[in-house]
Design goal:
Shape: globular
Number of helices: 5
Distance between the termini: 42 Å
Strand order of the largest sheet: 4-3-2-5-1-6-8-7
Length: 200
């Protein structure tokens, strides 16, 4: 069985939109694209390198696929090389030309097909970006692990990682590290349902 692992850059107030550059995603007038850049350092790069060095396939939404397919095939290096050689599963509700090598379309009954994909043998399925698709994963309890990079900044607007419709779920912290610039790298695994109690 394959795990779906969501790797996300997120602000303190939960925004995940356009972390990498000003033009990455300006939808709804978002004006803070590239908000992670001032905090990125060698420590952060080393962790990213670790996460890219393990076996994985990619699970991407259409918008993120388009961004990645326009950039990574022209690059080489410790992130570009595994991105380019691995299988890319692309979720889209409309026709899509898949020019990036080793790309596979997932359409139709997406939830059923993702459940089927999880049952197959193979490496973990890493999700990068893909905010809209992540909402589908969270609503249908398809996320096995969250590898979050929380940056010491509030943005006040933008697409949020946990939007309305997220299924209530418990997670267990399995690893955490803090960069010199204050970025918290925390990995969580799915851990059953919500438990409540009282201090009375």
């Amino acid at each position: 069985m394959r795990k779906i692992v969501v790797l996300t850059f997120v602000s303190l107030d939960g925004v995940m939109q356009a972390p990498g550059g000003p033009e990455e995603d300006t939808s709804d007038g978002f004006q803070y694209g590239g908000w992670t850049v001032p905090y990125f350092d060698e420590f952060s790069g080393n962790i990213m390198g670790e996460q890219m060095s393990m076996p994985f396939d990619l699970l991407l939404g259409r918008k993120t696929y388009d961004i990645f397919a326009g950039y990574w095939p022209k690059q080489t290096g410790e992130i570009a090389d595994p991105f380019n050689k691995t299988t890319k599963y692309v979720v889209s509700h409309s026709a899509l030309k898949l020019d990036w090598e080793n790309s596979v379309l997932i359409d139709g009954d997406v939830v059923a097909k993702l459940k089927e994909l999880k049952q197959q043998d193979g490496p973990m399925l890493q999700v990068h970006g893909s905010g809209n698709m992540i909402q589908t994963l969270l609503k249908n309890d398809l996320v096995d692990e969250l590898w979050l990079k929380t940056f010491p900044i509030t943005l006040g607007e933008g697409k949020r990682l946990f939007a309305s419709g997220t299924m209530p779920a418990a997670f267990e912290l399995i690893e955490s590290r803090i960069s010199p610039s204050g970025v918290i790298f925390a990995n969580y695994k799915r851990a059953g349902g919500i438990k409540t109690g009282s201090f009375n």
